[in-house]
Amino acid sequence: MRCGRACAGTWRGCGTPHFATAAGLVGRAKAHCLRRCGAGLAAYLTESLRAQLHSLGRSSPEQTPAGTFARGILNRLLIDLSWASSKLEGNTYSRLDTERLIEFGQAAEGKDALETQMILNHKSAIEYLVRDTEHAGVTPETVIALHAFLSDGLMPDPLTCGRIRKRAVEIGGSVYLPVAMPQRLEDLFGIVMSMAAEIQDPFEQSFFMMVHLPYLQPFEDVNKRVSRLAANIPLIQHNLCPLSFIDVPQQAYVDAVLGVYELNRIELLQVDDSKRGRFPFIPEEVAP
Questions:
Q1: Based on the structure, what is the number of domains in the chain?
Q2: Which of 182, 218, 241, 282 has its CA 20 to 30 A from that of 104?
Q3: What CA–CA distance (Å, rounded) separates 252 from 269?
Q4: Is 217 exposed, middle or buried (0-12, 13-18, 19+ CB in 10 A)?
């Protein structure tokens, strides 16, 4: 699936796009860096929402090693997150098909081989995050490794797997233009990941990556998948309930991502005004 395929179509309901290049939100990220949660100032997620998320997402009051909770629910997480994240990309596997593929290696009949590969790639990437918590952190290396896992066998050029892109890309049906110059892209990727690593609150950290990674488009494709799994890194590290994206409606998600691309409306990834489902950053989604 090529870059932006799942986001085909125009943004509706938010007026005329006004930040149609990558400069807009990256500049906002720099401002965000100066008003970090730890500084007690404004953040992307409100203080009250973060408090709710911590209350509902807490797995245990005890201090346990990073990744303990996620390892305890790994089988369910593999199925739910692999299925839901793939579904957001247009994958037609059912949850039952996904369960059979992950648990027994049985590919669903009549499905495209690329759909099967997409789900197996999610499985490998999730296992990496959960089983290698010592190395899988909020770092550029981890995000690049996630891309290598998630894009395996899906890129027209295998050499682009796990590598920052060297060419310009476009978002289908959108006026948004991601950064094109390779050196500038690498610099911005480093800046965004450095900012993410400095954030103290794990939910704020999670949301920051879910916004900025697809916006930056550091890879030729598979950027949104990378962002969804990267959003779980701080939650796994802090033994908080991971985000499965299982209740997130595809069209509402697509519209929200386009709203971020074209309008810098980051709040659209927090709530679903259409009432067609729940987005990850409303409290019900993280309830154990």
A1: 1
A2: 241
A3: 9
A4: buried
pTM: 0.85
Contact present, 166 and 157 (Cβ < 8 Å): no
Per-residue pLDDT tens over the stretch 211-237: 999 999 999 999 999 999 999 999 999
Q: Strands, E, within 53-149: which ranges?
A: none
- Give the sign of the dihedral formed by CA 265, CA 268, CA 274, CA 276: positive
pLDDT digits (tens, 9 = 90+) for 135-168: 999 999 999 999 999 999 999 999 999 999 999 9
Please give the residue range of the domain that contains residue 34. Answer: 5-286
CB burial of residue 118 (10 Å; 0-12, 13-18, 19+): buried
What single string gives the DSSP state of each residue in 159-187?
GGTTS---S----TT---B----HHHHHH
How far does Cα 181 stand from its chain's mean position? 23
Positive or negative: CA dihedral 268, 271, 277, 281: positive
CA distance 104 to 199: 39
Give me the amino acid identity at 85. Answer: S
More confident residue, 21 or 106: 106
What's the confidence (pLDDT) of residue 26?
55
> What distance separates the 2 farthest-apart alpha carbons in the chain?
54
Which CATH number covers residue 83?
1.10.3290.10
User: Of 267, 280, 136, 148, which is closest to residue 203 (Cα–Cα)?
Assistant: 280
